């Protein structure tokens, strides 16, 4: 079973670590390597290596491990493509992808926009398989758990860092389009957060002032006290549970009390309609955000080899290790 939940967490947390990687690239790699040049990958070996691990690696433990156990010239073997990936490649598209090959230095001069989509998607597939293997054979120790997990995270960070750095120094519409296609989860996270913020702001914005106690007949004393306290916070300093005035809000304690206990049918309808239509108009309108979320959820599903987002949810619910709320 595909471990979508864990891989998704890794992707969201590490997909855009290129900010710090870009600083490393710009300081440690000669300028001629940052754009397309006439030099071949084999010629990159002429540059001396003064560090025991790749300067573009984001894994601290990985570097320490190499520092203590190896003084020989290094190849970024943990960033290479596997036979499984190459075998699954039609017409050698993946096999020839520079994002998935062995390299001493990031091969900026041969990476093109056409490599991004198949490269990142194949890499995610392989990392998912490695993650599944790690889960099946996990041992609670640093070398058996932390180091393998860091290598998985590091490999994604390194390859994505190459792509994002090229965007910074060699931007093009084709590269932007490819990056947008494979970073759907990042945008989805932002939109989901904005959606929630709009709902919260709309909830806080609504208030209904009541001065006639007959309008709120049926509410228990605790609900009346809460409504009076809300009125005090809104500037009605003399509000009391017994005499009012009272302020009804869309916060759960106030909303539920009205729905369950208020005898005033028109009040229940008004509060209910206000609750279900939160963030649907004005500056807090979530309509376009909803459309974008649906679009990106479909892209996320395709990225993870599902037909639609519902299949992802089904997988998560059927997984014995994932608890859905």
From TrEMBL:
One of its GO terms (cellular component) is chloroplast. InterPro entries: Neurolysin/TOP_dom2 (IPR024077), OpdA_N (IPR045666), Pept_M3A_M3B (IPR045090), Pept_M3A_M3B_dom (IPR001567). Residues 258-312 form the Peptidase M3A/M3B catalytic domain. GO terms for molecular function: metal ion binding; metalloendopeptidase activity. The keyword Hydrolase applies. It holds the Pfam family TOP_N. Gene3D superfamilies: Neurolysin, domain 3. This is Oligopeptidase A. The lineage of its organism: Eukaryota, Viridiplantae, Streptophyta, Embryophyta, Tracheophyta.
């Amino acid at each position: 079973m595909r471990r979508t939940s864990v891989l998704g967490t890794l992707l969201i947390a590490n997909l855009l670590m290129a900010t710090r990687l870009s600083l490393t690239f710009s300081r440690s790699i000669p300028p001629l390597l940052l754009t397309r040049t006439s030099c071949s990958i084999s010629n990159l070996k002429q540059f001396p290596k003064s560090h025991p691990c790749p300067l573009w690696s984001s894994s601290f433990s990985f570097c320490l491990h190499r520092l203590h156990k190896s003084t020989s010239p290094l190849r970024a073997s943990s960033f290479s493509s596997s036979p499984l990936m190459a075998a699954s490649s039609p017409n050698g598209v993946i096999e020839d992808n520079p994002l998935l090959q062995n390299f001493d230095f990031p091969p900026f001069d041969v990476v093109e926009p056409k490599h991004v989509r198949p490269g990142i998607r194949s890499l995610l597939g392989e990392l998912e398989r490695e993650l599944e293997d790690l889960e099946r054979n996990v041992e609670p120790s640093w070398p058996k758990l932390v180091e393998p997990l860091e290598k998985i995270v590091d490999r994604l960070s390194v390859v994505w860092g190459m792509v994002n750095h090229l965007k910074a120094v060699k931007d093009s519409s084709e590269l932007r389009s490819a990056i947008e296609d494979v970073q759907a989860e990042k945008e989805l996270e932002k939109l989901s957060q904005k959606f929630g913020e709009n709902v919260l702001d709309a909830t806080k914005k609504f208030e209904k002032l009541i001065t006639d106690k007959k309008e709120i007949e049926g509410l228990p004393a605790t609900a009346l006290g809460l409504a009076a306290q809300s009125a005090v916070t809104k500037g009605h300093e003399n509000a009391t549970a017994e005499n009012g005035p009272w302020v009804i809000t869309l916060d759960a304690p106030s909303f539920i009390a009205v729905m369950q206990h208020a005898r005033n049918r028109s009040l229940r309808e008004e509060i209910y309609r206000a609750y279900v239509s939160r963030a649907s108009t004005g500056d807090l309108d979530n309509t376009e955000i909803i459309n974008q979320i649906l679009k990106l959820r479909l892209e996320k599903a395709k990225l993870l080899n599902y037909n639609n987002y519902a299949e992802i949810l089904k997988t998560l619910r059927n997984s014995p290790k994932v608890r859905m709320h």
